[in-house]
Amino acid sequence: GAVVSQHPSRVICKSGTSVKIECRSLDFQATTMFWYRQFPKQSLMLMATSNEGSKATYEQGVEKDKFLINHASLTLSTLTVTSAHPEDSSFYICSARRVSTDTQYFGPGTRLTVL
Amino acid sequence: EDKVVQSPLSLVVHEGDTVTLNCSYEVTNFRSLLWYKQEKKAPTFLFMLTSSGIEKKSGRLSSILDKKELFSILNITATQTGDSAVYLCAVVPYNNNDMRFGAGTRLTVKP
Questions:
Q1: Of A16, A20, B26, B60, which one is least surrounded by beta carbons within 10 A?
Q2: Which residues have a Cβ under 8 Å from the Cβ of A100 and sit 6 or more positions away?
Q3: Buried b / exposed e along A21-60 (16+ C-beta atoms within 10 A)
Q4: Per-residue pLDDT in tens (0 to 9) along chain B, 111 residues
Q5: How far apart are the C-alpha atoms of B88 and B104, rounded to whole Å?
Q6: Chain A CB within 8 Å of residue B97 CB
């Protein structure tokens, strides 16, 4: 058990467009989901914590109007990169925390390339 | 400020060698420490440690936590080329939802 899916796995878009990434916990409920960003050969940087039914908590330096997060249900969180620019190109990974445990299970990641 | 420091940052060994990866931390209200393995895509869970001195094992991998000295080690015995990956250590504090990751140790196992 504990499978997390992410869609799409890869997206290439033009500068100025918006991109939505979905993160789903397939076989468990997750009241909390996390969005990370990873640059090449670097560790994961937490962007925001998403709680079901409430507003996301953003890390310092992450623009909430640019990275819109919605946690609509116990199994789905979405990240929308609005008006994407080339500097937003990165590997975005979500994770879901199983209720009443500390273990986070990661999705396979989404590679975003903005031209 | 919470800190998680992993060492070494990179390591190259030959198949059959044993390696020890280190993770030290400074976290307010520590709750647990987790180890992940990251190959080409997202990290996969290895171990979660909450108590000092209790070794967790899975095949050739084992890990232990020392809450007094604020560190953990991940051991891999009889390494194989498939062990090549980045190994990430993360800590979870109380009253907080998120994990703080170390920079990772990039392990390369040569045939």
A1: A16
A2: none
A3: bbbbbeebebbbbbbbbbeeeebbebbbbbbbeeebbbee
A4: 778 999 999 999 999 999 999 999 998 888 899 999 998 777 888 999 998 999 999 999 999 999 999 999 999 999 999 999 999 999 988 766 667 888 899 999 999
A5: 5
A6: yes
